[in-house]
Amino acid sequence: MSELQIKKIYQILQVYVGKEWSICNLEVVPLLPKGENYCTNVLGVSASLKPGEGKQARAIRAIAKCSVSTGIFKIGFLNIYQREVNFYTRIIPCLKEFVRKHCNEDMEDMFPEFYGCSDQPQKATADSILLIEDLTTKGFEIKDRFVGYDYDEIQAVLKTVAFFHGVSLAMKIKDPISFEANIKSLSQIDLFSREVMERLWEMVPDVEQDNESNAKLLLQILEDYHIPQQYIHKMANFLASQYLPFAGEKLHTVPGTEPFSTLIHNDLWINNIMHIIRNGSTSETKLIDFQMYRYNHPANDLMHLLFTSVKHAVLKEHLDDLIEFYYKELITSLLRMECDISGFEKQQFFKDINVSMEAVFGHIIYMILFVVFGKRKSDSDNYEPPSIKGKNDDIPEEAKKNFCFLVEQVFKRNWCIGIDGLQ
After folding, report:
1. Which of 128, 148, 357, 382 could hold 119 in an S-S bridge, CB 3.0 to 4.6 Å?
2. Does any domain span residue 186?
3. Keyword set for this entry (predicted)?
4. Tell me, what DSSP letter sits at residue 138?
5. What are the CA-CA distances from residue 406 to residues 96, 124, 369, 412, 415 (Å)?
6. Please, are residues 171 and 179 in contact by the beta-carbon 8 Å criterion?
7. In a domain? residue 197
8. Cis peptide bond upstream of 259, omega within 30
9. What is the C-alpha to C-alpha distance for residues 28 and 422, in angstroms, rounded to an integer?
10. 300-316 burial by CB neighbour count: b if 16+ within 10 A, else e?
11. Which sign does the torsion angle of CA 268, 271, 273, 279 carry?
12. 243, containing H or E segment
């Protein structure tokens, strides 16, 4: 971290705590290995606050986000910084004001507090930094991704997610002009420019050979788990047309269907959700890491979350229950804000999952097999683009079971009708 960035952290904290406090003993340490959060380095910040007259000294902790040092990902960081600062400074206040106006109450706080940023979004540089609350100081934690959510835990998460979707959807219904100006316009900014995507592709030395190797590995897993041959044949067509490490591009290019489309997280999985657990159950949930949010169908978030973050046994037994539970919570949120729910029928929502699967299917496969159960990246500046090269034995059995269950459900439920290569 540069001296300029340290200075910027100090300045952000000083503005946040006020002039009556003096900042002492500022420390900044890495929280994640470089590359673990792709374009962003995540750092822990701690400091002592020396008070003015009549006040007691206290400590403060925060999370800092700044650019990785590798060239192409610096460019990606500028877009991510702009999006995340906009989310905390424009979108969240807008949603909270809407809830106060239409529910006569404060919006449930689903997000960490924003402490500040060094630069305005449109003036971001490679040295820009944003600071948010360190939720661990309040007892929040991230569930182990290698374990996944049980039934009660995922229900608690789905309540929060449905309310997050419901508030912005209600705003679209009741205050469409403000929604268009303050939510939709900001959530349609491309995550990566064409230049960045072209350079990312250039970093893959042999896409065709890499893709062939990937497909062979995944098809062998399906064979080993006795997935029907007609499904395997169609999956072979699909994998031939997809480079899975970049399948996430469809999250930003496949439009959602109306009337359900609204503000979604677009990267919703277990690592981007924090909880307080009291007496063995989830008492509070917060959503974090708003780098990829988008105007799209909430089923994108729902399906991505369920298939990447729920224990296999729970998902296998309760998939229908969980989809139904989420839908009811979403409608409850709309009714809470006195919205007309005609047109938001369950049948339409379930039908829309076909389009959502077109957007998320490839990315879910990549996440299940090589991110959720993947190894942590090394703490090195020599960061490479995502790769799924490996051997069958490198992939945990839980990941293989989730992958095969996903493929089976896509075909059995006819979610495949919009997915290239699976029709």
Report:
1. 128
2. yes
3. Membrane, Transmembrane, Transmembrane helix
4. G
5. 36, 40, 12, 10, 10
6. yes
7. yes
8. yes
9. 49
10. bbbbbbbbbbbbbebbe
11. positive
12. none
CA–CA dist 245, 218 (Å, integer): 14
Both tokens assigned to 208: 């065709």
In terms of Cβ atoms closer than 10 Å to its own Cβ (0-12, 13-18, 19+), residue 68 is buried
403 membership: H or E segment, kind and range? helix 397-412
* Secondary structure letter of residue 381 according to DSSP: S
Both structure tokens of 410: 């896509």
Range of the domain at 190: 139-418
Tell me the H-state helices in 87-224. 92-103, 151-174, 176-179, 194-202, 207-224
One-letter amino acid at 50 equals: K
Both tokens of 177, joined, read 């002009």
Helix-then-strand count for the chain, H and E: 13, 9
Report the number of distinct structural domains present in the chain.
2
Which ranges constitute the DSSP H helices of 203-243?
Answer: 207-224, 229-240
The reply to whether 89 falls in a domain is: no
Residue 97 CB burial class (10 angstroms; 0-12, 13-18, ≥19)? middle
pLDDT tens digits for the chain (423 residues)?
778 889 999 999 999 999 889 999 999 998 876 656 667 889 999 999 988 766 788 999 999 998 876 555 666 788 889 999 999 999 999 999 999 988 766 677 899 999 999 999 888 888 899 999 999 999 999 999 999 999 999 999 999 999 999 999 999 999 999 999 999 999 987 766 666 666 666 666 666 666 788 888 899 999 999 999 999 998 998 888 777 766 777 777 888 899 999 999 999 999 999 999 887 777 899 999 999 999 999 999 999 999 999 999 999 999 999 999 999 999 999 999 999 999 999 999 999 999 999 899 999 998 998 888 876 555 444 445 455 555 667 788 999 999 999 999 999 998 987 776 676
Question: How big, in percent rounded to 5, are the helix, strand and coil portions of the chain?
Answer: 55, 15, 30
Q: Indicate the residue type of 64.
A: A
Q: Would you give the DSSP letter of residue 44?
A: E
Mapped onto helix, strand or coil, the DSSP state of residue 166 is helix
Q: On the CB side of 41, how many CA atoms lie within 13 Å of its CA?
A: 25
Whether residue 130 contacts residue 85, with contact meaning beta carbons closer than 8 Å, is answered with yes
Residue 344 lies inside a defined structural domain of this protein: yes
Answer yes or no: do 157 and 249 share one domain: yes
